[in-house]
Write a structure and sequence with these properties.
Layout (H helix, E strand, L loop, with lengths): L5 H29 L6 H11 L3 H4 L1 H13 L1 H31 L7 H28 L3 E2 L2 E2 L9 H25 L2 H32 L1 H8 L7 H18 L5 H21 L2 E3 L3 E2 H4 L3 H28 L12
Helix pairs in contact: 1-4, 1-6, 1-7, 4-5, 4-13, 5-6, 6-7, 7-8, 7-11, 8-9, 8-10, 10-11
């Protein structure tokens, strides 16, 4: 007799994988978005060197979350992929361009400017596509049962454009605070200068999206305004983190702005989850509707019990090995 809900366990695993990807790949995508605005080529070298040893490991969480979603909630794919073909293609194309730029930029002298552009535009396109996918999830899909019946461009609306731009601003903030942590000298000073501006942009977009969302999804409006619960604590905690970023940047702290930015992302993400739970395919299909057979979920879960600790271990080890500052003209010291 089954005494635990496998669908809940898998929802937690996939949710964990998604937020880990956002946090860990977000700052190197943010650095790519900021690439054209760096003060000089030395600063760009530092930016790329700060993430070169870890960026591909960060994307492990994207693979884990996507594979887990396919195995545990296969019916989600029958809606998400037809609805988001173009958005997903743009995201993957952007990630490919960024990855190629990592490998070729330092080997190319005459055409380095083209690889700079590939790194920037690949990061920007991938980030915008991710934000647009989040916006599409909020606004919902046109479905009949678990069959998508909308158009190929229904995902692209003014609301999803705004969420895409918001994700770009958020990842840029993550990148700037990461650069504060990992750089020094004029590169770090530049990062200190742009962080408050990026924070202001994130807060403005966050406020607009928060005000717009209740009109996009009536279920979210009912959840936020018809129930008295802990849900209002989440945006409050996000704002406390935002204040922490401003304060610690003003006091020239190095590590705390990055940690506070991670906190702001986590609480915003939890707010999104709390707003939609337990719906996995908006407007009204829950995790239990989309779940695979319990036997399949249990079989895959046994594998995940080995995979996740291994991924966490080598991720922690990588960050430990490549800790410290990245200086101009050299790698890690």
């Amino acid at each position: 007799m089954q005494t635990f809900d496998l669908s809940l366990i898998w929802a937690a695993i996939i949710g964990f994988g998604v937020i880990m990807y956002v946090l860990m790949d977000g700052f190197d995508l943010g650095l790519g978005i900021l690439f054209p605005f760096a003060p000089d080529e030395d600063a760009r070298d530092v930016m790329m060197n700060s993430v070169a040893p870890i960026w591909d490991g960060n994307e492990t969480w994207l693979v884990l979350g996507g594979a887990g979603l396919l195995g545990a909630f296969p019916l989600v794919y029958s809606v998400f992929l037809p609805a988001l073909y173009i958005g997903v293609f743009l995201m993957l194309a952007g990630l490919i361009f960024r990855g190629v730029a990592f490998e070729f930029r330092f080997k190319s002298k005459r055409n380095r400017h083209w690889w700079n552009r590939a790194f920037c535009w690949g990061s920007a396109v991938a980030t915008f596509a991710q934000g647009a996918v989040v916006g599409t999830y909020i606004q919902g899909f046109e479905t009949e049962g678990f069959v998508y019946v909308g158009g190929a461009l229904d995902w692209l609306t003014p609301f999803t454009v705004l969420t895409g731009l918001g994700m770009m601003a958020g990842y840029s903030l993550l990148g700037a605070t990461w650069l504060i942590l990992k750089s020094e000298g004029h590169v770090q000073e530049w990062a200190y200068r742009i962080t408050p501006k990026l924070l202001a942009a994130v807060l403005v977009v966050f406020a607009i999206i928060s005000a717009w969302t209740p009109f996009v999804d009536g279920g979210v409006r009912e959840r936020w305004f018809s129930e008295v619960s802990f849900i209002w604590l989440l945006p409050l905690l996000a704002m406390i983190c935002a204040y922490g970023i401003y304060r610690w940047v003003s006091h020239r702290r190095e590590g705390m702005p990055f940690l506070a930015t991670l906190g702001m992302f986590i609480f915003t993400y939890l707010g999104l989850v709390a707003s939609k739970w337990p719906v996995i395919v908006p407007p009204d299909h829950t995790i239990w509707d989309a779940a695979s057979a319990p036997e399949s979920q249990l079989f895959l879960l046994l594998g995940m019990l080995f995979v996740i600790p291994i991924v966490l271990t080598y991720t922690a080890w990588t960050y430990w090995v490549f800790r410290g500052k990245v200086r101009t003209g050299e790698g890690y010291h």
